[in-house]
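Deliverable D5.2: sample structural annotation.
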Amino acid sequence: MSVRKFVGELERVDSSPAERDEGPPVLAAFLVATSMDATDYVARFRAMLSAAIHTANQADFDSETISEVLIPDWFAEVTRGPIAVGRDDAASSGSQLYVSRRGEEPWELQDWLFCFDPQLRGWAWWDVTQLSKDVVLLWVDSSGEPAFPCEEFRWLAYVCGAKNVDGPLVRRLSEWRQSRQDPAT
């Protein structure tokens, strides 16, 4: 993925782009059923994604380790090896659901952080829209690719409190705009 796709990404994590903003013609969306109120899920997801991107922006990806100082304890606890349990119930449940649904081991925090290397990452954050009180769409720019490396993104979605994550689903930019016009009530 071109590094220029990441221009403005942190701003979009902190605040949704305006409907009239230029964007890629095609986005990838992940349909997420949450284990909590969608507003709380979105705040938690955005905060964690922001920490990860800030960490990546400061990281030396040629080094052996990446600083974990910005990563919240609740996330780090369940991203430490084969036991995916921590003090945060939503994170513990989400990590266990990821393991059972994906047939994968829990992520190691350093492995997860290295996936944010802009030279390797197959997606750039675009936005989140709420479909109901416990369902959201997470939107990313995958350069129009229907299949791209995104397990680190899926892990993030689950550990932030997802009960289920479907996708990626290829969608037009106009569908994102429509979802912004018809927010959940």
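Annotation notes: The two ends are 36 Å apart (CA to CA). The CA atoms of residues 74 and 87 lie 7 Å apart.
The annotation will be released with the project's public dataset once the embargo ends.
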